[in-house]
Amino acid sequence: MLSPSVALGLSIWRVGCFMGGCCFGRPTTLPWGIRFPRGSIAYYQQIEQLILRPHAVSSLPVQPTELYEVFGGLILLAVLLLLERRQRYDGQLFWGLTLGYAALRFFNEFARGDFGRGWIWKPYLSLPQGISIVLIGTALIVMHALKKSALRQSCRHDVTNEN
C-alpha cells in the first residue's frame, strides 16, 4: 500500500542529493552536464583525482545522476499507480517497487562518479550494483511465486464455488 509513496520519497530524496552536491556522476561532455561550485564534493574529488586545477571556479561538468534517479523514481511512481489498479496478488506493488528501483539503481551506477560506494569487481561492478542484482533476482523469484500462489487460490476458489 505504501510502495507508491516510497517511490515518490526516493525522488524527493534525490532532489536533496542534488541540492547537497552528493551522489554526482562521472565527468561528461553531454550538454546537460552539471557543474558544481568550488567547495563542493565533486570539486574536491576532481582536484584529488588531478583532473581539475585547484583554483578552478567550478567542477568539470558531471552526469546529473541524482536527477536521473528523480525522474526514474517518478516514472516508477506512475507505473506503481497504474499497477495498483490492476493488482493481482498481495505484495505485487512492494516487489514491483523493489524490482524497479533495483534496476534503476543498477543502470544509474554506470554514470556515478562519487567515491565511497565500494566495489565487488573494480572497476566493473560496484557494491550497489551487486546488491541490485540480488534484489532483482529475489524480486523476480518472489513475484513469480506469489503470482503462482494467487492463481492456485483462484482456481481452488472457482472449484469450490462450482460445487
Please characterize this protein's 3D structure.
With 163 residues, this protein is mainly α. The chain has one domain (3-26, 63-162). The chain is 61% helix and 3% strand. It is built from 5 helices and 2 strands, in the order ααααββα. It has a two-stranded antiparallel sheet with strand order 1-2. Strand 1 (119-121) and strand 2 (125-126) form a beta hairpin. The mean pLDDT is 93.
Topology of this structure?
Layout: H1 3-20, H2 41-48, H3 65-85, H4 92-108, E1 119-121, E2 125-126, H5 127-162
Antiparallel strand pairs: 1-2
Helix pairs in contact: 1-3, 1-4, 3-4, 4-5
Strand order of the largest sheet: 1-2
**Overall pLDDT metric:** 93
The run of helices and strands is HHHHEEH
Give me the Rg, rounded: 21 Å
Q: Uncertain segments of ≥5 residues (pLDDT<50)?
A: none
Total beta strands: 2
Structural class: mainly alpha
Helix content: 55-70%
Give the domain tally.
1
* Shape verdict: elongated
In whole angstroms, the N-to-C terminal distance is 34 Å
The total of helices stands at 5
Tell me about the biggest sheet? 2 strands, antiparallel
In what range is the share of β-strand residues? Answer: under 5%
Main traits of this protein?
mainly alpha, 163 residues, two-stranded antiparallel sheet, 5 helices
Short description:
Helix content is 61%, strand content 3%. With 163 residues, it is mainly α.
